[in-house]
Amino acid sequence: MLIVGAGGHGRCCLDIAREYYDHIAFLDDNHINNMINDCKVIGQIDDMRLYCSEYKDIVIAIGNNKLRKQLFNKAVELGYNLISLISNKSIISNYANIDKGTVVFPNAVIEANVTVGKGCIISTGAIIDHDAVVGDYCHINALAVVSSMTKITEYTKVDYGQVYRKKDMDETWKEEYVKQFGEEPSFF
Known about the structure:
Elements: E1 2-4, H1 8-17, E2 25-27, E3 35-36, E4 39-43, E5 57-60, H2 65-77, E6 81-82, E7 85-86, E8 91-92, E9 97-98, E10 103-104, E11 109-110, E12 115-116, E13 121-122, E14 127-128, E15 133-134, E16 139-140, E17 145-146, E18 151-152, E19 157-158, E20 163-164, H3 171-181
Parallel strand pairs: 1-2, 1-5, 2-4, 5-6, 7-10, 8-11, 9-12, 10-13, 11-14, 12-15, 13-16, 14-17, 15-18, 16-19, 17-20
Antiparallel strand pairs: 3-4
GO molecular function: transferase activity
Pfam family, one: PglD_N
Keywords: Transferase
C-alpha cells in the first residue's frame, strides 16, 4: 500500500495501515529515501505515476482538504484503488455509509444512517451522530462532534473539540457558502 504524505497525518495513517497491510511505503516531497516510523519514503508526491503498477492501494494522507482532493483525483486517473482506511478501534454503525478514500481513526464513532463523503478525515475520538451527512474532503478533527441530522458541506473543517449543530448553519453561513462556491447549498 502507498501512503501519499509522511507528515503528522501520514504517520498516523501508517498506524492504521499496519492493521491491514505488510508492504507499505510513503511518497513525500520532504523526506525522500528516509525511513519514517520504520517505513521508507520511496519518492516525491509527483512520483505517484511511477508506482501504480507496484502498488494498487493508496491513501491520500494530506491534511489540506483541497490539495487532498487534487491528489485523490490524480490517483484515480492513474488507476489506483483509493481505499478507505478505517481503524479497527473505531466504532462504525452497520448502517453508516463511508465513501472511498476516507480515513477513520481510533475511537471515532460514526452512528446509524450517517453518510461520509469521499476523501474525508475523521480524527481520533470524533463523533458523528445519526443521520448526519459529511460532504466530500471534510476534516472532522479530534474530539469534534457533528450532531444528528446535520449536513456539512465539502471542504469543511470541524476543529478540535468543536460541536457542529444543525442550527449553526444560519443565513451568514449560507452567504459564506455562496461566496465560496458561487451557488446556494442544495441540501437544505
